[in-house]
Design goal:
about 325 residues, alpha/beta, eight-stranded parallel beta sheet, three-stranded antiparallel beta sheet, 12 helices, 11 strands, about 45% helix
Length: about 325
């Protein structure tokens, strides 16, 4: 079985809701095309057609992918005005639940949450997982300018841990990225750095220390963090820096984290394989941003055993997201 663990949709009603926002995020457009401005830092054109479930199924069938884990792409509800954030999250989650029901066995969904309001996010988390049956949480690398180890998120992490569903990190536009807005460097490298900072904060901030059963997926082959882990360990274990909230080496916490292989490079995938091992790797495409067939060919080109490839291509995701 082949499972794509990172695949995105974008509900038309949610796109329309973005145009009503009055805060840092602004959107214009209608129908199938929108222009989204994230705080004046990054703009991107949003074409809804490739995000539709039918287009996704067509790409999956052409590539031989059995199921996909769906999430609504950025910007998430945490970007929205207070009176729109909960509405937006519920709209996203209702849409995903409906798509999963309409195409049984083909999709699982990740909950979008109004994380700018932790109390409201906790309520919507219970509804999305308990009532709608979604399989995990779509978790931005920055939350309305706040870091992921902010104290107010502690009760949210406890809820996610108790529910036993994975927290799937995903890049978003962060305030510091204004320094690299030229030359399209934000999607090139800014996103990868921001998820790596977020993951390191979850470790050094003690979130995984306090919530050892929390399951986390770090996307894009771990961003830059696996490549820099040796330096992190040298700083914490030799120089004894940054250890105020942890009792073990950062590498030990990171061993419980899954990496998806959304990095269009067999070399990067091989490094992730050597770093994390086959039990902690998940196939993903980032469709429609990247072709499903492109990413699948790269995984198939890896010089690994067929047993390990089967784990990466689907078995690990089936277990983590409880895909039937």
């Amino acid at each position: 079985m082949i499972v794509d663990c990172q695949s995105h949709v974008f509900p038309p009603a949610y796109a329309e809701l973005l145009t009503r926002n009055t805060g840092a995020l602004r959107a214009t457009g209608d129908g199938d095309r929108y222009l989204v401005d994230c705080g004046g830092i990054q703009q991107f054109a949003l074409d809804l057609a490739p995000y539709q479930p039918e287009a996704k199924l067509s790409a999956m069938d052409a590539a031989g992918v059995d199921a996909s884990v769906l999430s609504v792409n950025i910007p998430g509800p945490e970007w929205l005005d207070d009176d729109l954030a909960v509405v937006g999250a519920r709209l996203c989650n209702d849409t995903l639940a409906e798509v999963c029901t309409r195409y049984p066995g083909r999709f699982a969904g990740l909950a979008s949450l109004p994380l700018n309001d932790v109390a409201a996010a906790r309520v919507e988390l219970q509804r999305a997982i308990g009532r709608l049956g979604l399989a995990g949480v779509f978790f931005p690398s920055h939350i309305a300018g706040q870091p992921v180890d902010a104290p107010q998120l502690e009760t949210f992490y406890a809820d996610v841990e108790a529910l036993g569903v994975p927290l799937v990190l995903h890049p978003t536009v962060a305030p510091w990225q204004s320094a690299i807005r030229e030359h399209s460097m934000i999607p090139m490298i800014g996103f990868m750095v921001d998820t790596s900072i977020a993951m390191l904060r979850l470790i050094l901030g003690g979130v995984l220390e306090r919530h050892p059963r929390l399951q986390i997926v770090h996307p894009h082959a771990g961003g830059v963090l696996p490549y820099l882990m040796g330096r992190v360990i040298e700083q914490t274990e030799v120089k004894r820096r940054g250890r105020e909230h942890i009792t073990r080496s950062p590498a030990e916490y990171y061993r419980q984290v899954y990496l998806d292989l959304v990095s269009p490079s067999t070399l990067a995938m091989r490094y992730a394989y050597d770093f994390a091992g086959p039990e902690r790797l998940l196939f993903g495409s980032d469709h429609p941003w990247v072709g499903v067939d492109v990413m699948l060919e790269l995984v198939r080109a890896l010089d690994i055993s067929e047993e390990d490839r089967a784990k990466i291509l689907g078995l690990n995701s089936v277990s983590l997201f409880r895909i039937r």
